[in-house]
Amino acid sequence: MDNIKSKVMDQFGKHAEKYVTSELHANGADLQTLIEWLQPQKTEIVLDIATGGGHVAKALSPYASQVIATDLTKEMLANTAMHLKPVCPNVSYVIADAENLPFLDDTFDIVTCRIAAHHFPNPHDFINEVARVLKPNGSFLLIDNVAPKEKHLAEFINSLEALRDESHARCLSIEVWRNLFASSHLQVIQSEYFKKTYTLPSWIERTANSQEQIDRVNQFIFDASEESQKYFNISYENGVIQFLQIDGWIVMCKKEC
């Protein structure tokens, strides 16, 4: 198994409860956008890849026939199931690698993946698997952090994420994602670029394993170039970093028939 996947299982296994209760993950406006764009039907079967705290599965559950929530990390999935089972009886839970899904071809009407793909070391394999398990004309909706097109800004945010979270692989640019979709016959139907605001102390502490790691992340941000500070809208209060903004993207594709 890729080293990054081992780190994902270790990281999310230790911090599973934090992702269930995270305000950022649980209450994002993108969850409502997801429902509005997908328009799920009661006859449809949904696959939620890398479900994490199960927020997408929970949001889609009332509108779909069945939701399969998958995650690479057993502890994360078990914790999510404990929270969701009493309120979402049509959600099932499967341990699965996003890059090697244990499902037959043309199985799902809808596939989703929210705030997780930047942990996947082989995004080309991930998109190939999405296209394989999706029914013809089925919908795929991806929400994730994305890298700016400027190389030095992309390197800054990916280096910062790797310092903060050892399970981070890479944020891709929108252009790279579009090329991956096209290579797997997924046609972009609708997309929206946005900025995500993070409260720094809680954002760092959610994944940090030591005070030393927290200090390294803060120092990296302090040392950022003026251009990076401005682009990511890094703000301070009494010399303490308070907020940072990262590029986000929500995109819906259709599988070509």
UniProtKB/TrEMBL annotation:
Q: Which GO terms describe its molecular function?
A: S-adenosylmethionine-dependent methyltransferase activity
Q: CDD domains, alphabetically?
A: AdoMet_MTases (cd02440)
**Which keywords label this protein?**
Methyltransferase, Transferase
Q: Which Gene3D superfamilies match?
A: Vaccinia Virus protein VP39
GO annotations under biological process?
methylation
Residue span, Methyltransferase type domain: 47-141
Which InterPro entries does its entry note? Diverse_substrate_MTase, Methyltransf_11, SAM-dependent_MTases_sf
Q: Name one Pfam family in it.
A: Methyltransf_11
Tell me the protein family, please: Belongs to the methyltransferase superfamily.
Q: What is this protein called?
A: Class I SAM-dependent methyltransferase
Source organism of the structure = Robertmurraya kyonggiensis
